[in-house]
Amino acid sequence: MMNFKNLQKNVHAYLTYCKDVFGAEVLINREKKLTALDLYRQEIENCTKCSLSATRKNFVFGDGSANAEILFVGEAPGAVEDEMGLPFVGLAGKLLDKALHHIGLDRSEVFITNILKCRPPGNRDPLPDEIALCEPYLHQQIALLKPKVIISLGRIAARTLLCLPSDTSLTTMRKQHYEYCGIPFCVFFHPAAILRNAGREDEFFADFEQLKEKYLKN
Ligand code: SF4
User: Is the distance from the beta carbon of residue 116 to the nearest atom of ligand 1 less than 6 Å?
Assistant: First the structure.
């Protein structure tokens, strides 16, 4: 069995190795970023700013890596997400996982969240006052994560975040390059839409391939 002195020696050797390879600041900053995101979740998870707090089963902060370079944003949690307290874990979430695997990623390497952190009853669209109250949480998540790119899953999240007219089509938005908080912003199909229209699955996967090409080269 390893004694304490040997353990100390091994930990010191590992930290020295990490410092040489990544630099001390990288280690310290990543640790701070993780802690800040965790603390932020604790700070807001009991939010009662809008009426959705009365009907939710669970607050859905988001899930993934605090070091994620890619942030996915949907509109709001659904029934399974509300039940489990995690975003995109139903059938649509399984398709999102499949698309991530298609480009060699796991959901633990990205960050996934929604504009609203609580489920609207019956999965209705988010209301403007709910968005106005909840969107600052997303802003803060972005400030803490500092992602390289933000992907909107579906037209509602995109229209909302980009303040686009309500008749802007997903087809139009998919072809555009936007910015949100100064960060490149792309619009993908919502995986639930692909479940309803499997004929568009190739286009859904093609968007992920372009994401890989553009942002995951190195
Ligand atoms: S939806 Fe957002 S603003 Fe409304 S209660 Fe949930 S966390 Fe608070």
Answer: yes
Residue 149 Cβ < 6 Å to ligand 1: no
Domain borders along the chain are 45-215
Ligand 1 pocket test target in 52, 61, 124, 141 with most atoms within 8 Å of CB? 52
Helix (H) or strand (E) holding 83: helix 79-84
Express each pLDDT in 135-178 by its tens digit. Answer: 999 999 999 999 999 999 999 899 988 999 989 999 999 989 99
What is the tally of helices (H) and strands (E) in the chain?
Answer: 10, 6
Question: What stretches of 42-166 adopt beta strand conformation (E)?
Answer: 63-64, 70-74, 111-114, 149-153
Task: Pick 45-215's CATH classification: 3.40.605.10, 3.40.470.10, 3.50.80.10, 3.40.190.10.
Answer: 3.40.470.10
Quote the pLDDT of residue 33: 52
CB 56 within 8 A of CB 119: yes
Q: Pocket of ligand 1, candidates 75, 127, 134: which has the most ligand atoms within 8 Å of its Cβ, to mutate?
A: 134
pTM of the model: 0.84
